Amino acid sequence: MKSLTKTAIACAVTLATFNTFAETQITVATVNNGHMIEMQKLTPEFEKQYPDIKVKWVTLEEGVLRQNVTQDIANGSGLYDVMTIGMYEAPIWGERGWLEPIDTSGSYDVKDILPSIRGGLSYDGTMFASPFYGESSMVMYRKDLAEKAGVTISDRDSWEHIRDAAAAMNDPDNGVYGICLRGKAGWGDNMAFLSAMANSFGARWFDMDWKPQLTSDEWKNAVSFYVDLLDNYGPPGASGNSFNENLALFNEGKCGMWIDATIAASFVTDPKQSKVADQVGFAQSPYAVTEKGANWLWSWALGIPAATKNADAAQKFVRWATSKEYIQLVGTKNGWSAVPTGTRQSTYDNPKFREAAVFAEAELKAINSANPNDSTLEPSPYVGVQFAAIPEFQAIGTTTGQMVSGALAGSLSVDKALESANRSADRQMRQAGYY
């Protein structure tokens, strides 16, 4: 009897030990954007498919996410098994060996991913992050307000025309502002928008000798125009607004125009979220002196740090969340206008998506028109539209964003802001040995 009891206890211990080790928990760090929140809601579908894997989420505001994942991967801490990164980080970190190559074998159908998006997340032909959604930028505007003001919004309008249209639609007494733009400091916040705008004014971050060009006439013209535009026709407190804040303003009917990420189109046309869903029109981004670099190219993607101890489980999650099947799942559950877009050609080929998403054609046109290898009027030594794909850019872009946000808030002049940013950039580039 004692022998049987000991055997039973040993079996129970063995089973408990097996169960303990059979379940793998992965930690996923992501940004607090709508599509990412939806992915979290659908996590039980993944866990049902892979019952031995549990997903823990860490959801952060964009600027905090960038800081946390950069620190984690640079230190090799392994806090996260999957991290949400973008086109800036993926090739740089991939080259340094900080990321696991994405498993694109078998049914994943990597060739279905749009070439510009796939290329932007790769280094030397290897994809180091898989796109959850992709985006460019475009104009979203209120058709009813434009008609009432007697203005038209077309593809590739001039910035002067956009300013005049903003003036015509501006009605602050009734809580409507002519234009909403990013003002919150950050290389991925206000500078994502402003870099593309500055490109169209003929600006560039660096010359061919890697000397910062932030005090050039082109940068001064672009930033001065931007500050005046928001001062005169933007909402109060614009220097604190980024994507989510402007999305909320637009959906409440408070913006005549909003120029931002194409991914917003699915939110502003959703009657469950937007009070003006049936009045939204779309147009390609405006320009000043050149169309080069006038709209950005980006992807929020899922990468796997080399320091993870759960690489196999992380690969399964990334493949699931960025698959054609996941897009089908969202389309079936939430409607085809709600799927994450900008990643796969099959999405745009799907008749259900094209019927549901009035923005599909404009979005794909914007993404396909962006060229990170040729985004400035004058030659530049870097790859990237709204960023320069070098490790030093994150600090340079962040400091520049802080200075520009200060100019927008009125705490310093545009000239002083750009002079300060240029000095900081020059110091960074010298210390890094560029010249």
UniProtKB/TrEMBL annotation:
One of its GO terms (cellular component) is periplasmic space. Belongs to the bacterial solute-binding protein 1 family. Coiled coil: none annotated. It comes from the Bacteria. SUPFAM superfamilies: Periplasmic binding protein-like II. Keywords: Signal. It is found in: Periplasm. Residues 1-22 form the signal peptide. PANTHER family: ARABINOSE-BINDING PROTEIN-RELATED, DIACETYLCHITOBIOSE BINDING PROTEIN DASA. Pfam families: SBP_bac_1. InterPro entries: Bact_solute-bd_prot1 (IPR050490), SBP (IPR006059). It comes from Marinomonas gallaica. Its main location: periplasm. This is Bacterial extracellular solute-binding protein. The keyword Transmembrane does not apply.
